[in-house]
Design brief:
With 284 residues, the chain is mainly alpha-helical. The chain contains eleven helices and no strands.
Length: 284
């Protein structure tokens, strides 16, 4: 090997060294970015969990301080059931046996808080509000219902349009549409035939149909989240919303069946939370 060839070989070695160093630095930067992203997500998750826990505890404490009331009897009972069901889900989460890659526990805890918050709002003294109709027609739901079926989003907009403290039939119109939406979400994403095929041993309804809880089990199984207590909690949560509908449809809380802004807002918010929870469950 002559001098020229030796210098060429040394340059090649140096180039490979520089490339190796560059590759190492690039990999290190990617690793550091991944660690930073993970830490950021972990901090956000922990903050959200703390906020959910704090909100749930605050709503339960506020509920315990409320004077005894015979208003909304079915919904009051359902809120207690939801809280009991949530404790079972909480125990499953704390056991470490549930991966929960869809963040369902956070939403379950939020729903447990929502159920108590709605009752607190209903039992609170009426407040004077301005622009009531416009505020009741605003919604936190964005694409959730469109993701499932655009017709459901249209029904939701129609339900919101009926909400007004000046509409004596507002609660009935809204509750009817909202009940249909919740039922349609499960029927659309958990058809009876599919549930029977995947869960041949399901417990049928008295008329031989597929129960709501069986549909929920089917949907949770699709994403590997059919863990102890979760299907029961979701079923109880929907039952709680339906109990709220039934209490509202009794029409005994105001003249000619009228409800004030705070009552209608509590009803709307409760349904929004339930729809967001179901959306996370049914959309893969």
């Amino acid at each position: 090997m002559n001098l020229s060839q030796l210098k060429s070989q040394l340059r090649q070695i140096e180039q490979k060294q520089r490339q190796a160093i560059s590759n190492y630095n690039q990999a290190a930067r990617k690793l550091n970015q991944a660690v930073n992203n993970y830490n950021s997500a972990a901090r956000a998750h922990n903050a959200r969990v703390r906020a959910n826990q704090q909100r749930l505890n605050q709503e339960l404490a506020r509920l315990r301080s409320q004077p005894t009331s015979t208003r909304y009897p079915r919904y009051t009972s359902s809120v207690q059931t939801v809280q009991t069901s949530f404790r079972r889900v909480e125990a499953t989460a704390e056991s470490g046996s549930w991966a929960d890659d869809r963040g369902l526990f956070d939403l379950a805890e939020s729903e447990a808080a929502n159920s108590a918050a709605a009752l607190n709002s209903l039992l609170a003294a009426p407040e004077s509000e301005s622009d009531e109709d416009a505020r009741l027609r605003n919604t936190v739901l964005t694409s959730e219902l469109n993701d499932i079926d655009p017709d459901l989003d249209n029904r939701w907009r129609g339900a919101l349009f009926s909400l007004s403290p000046r509409n004596p039939d507002a609660a009935r119109h809204f509750c009817t549409s909202a009940r249909e939406i919740l039922t349609s979400i499960l029927s659309d994403r958990a058809p009876d035939a599919a549930v029977k095929q995947v869960l041949p041993g399901f417990a049928p309804t008295p008329n031989g149909g597929v129960s709501r809880r069986a549909k929920i089990h089917y949907l949770l199984r699709q994403t590997g989240n059919d863990v102890d207590g979760l299907a029961e909690f979701i079923d109880d949560d929907i039952d709680s919303v339906v109990a709220l509908f039934d209490d509202f449809n009794g029409g005994t809380h105001g003249p000619a069946g009228r409800f004030d802004f705070a009552q209608l807002a509590a009803l709307k918010t409760r349904v929004e939370g339930a729809i967001q929870f179901l959306h996370r469950i049914v959309v893969h």
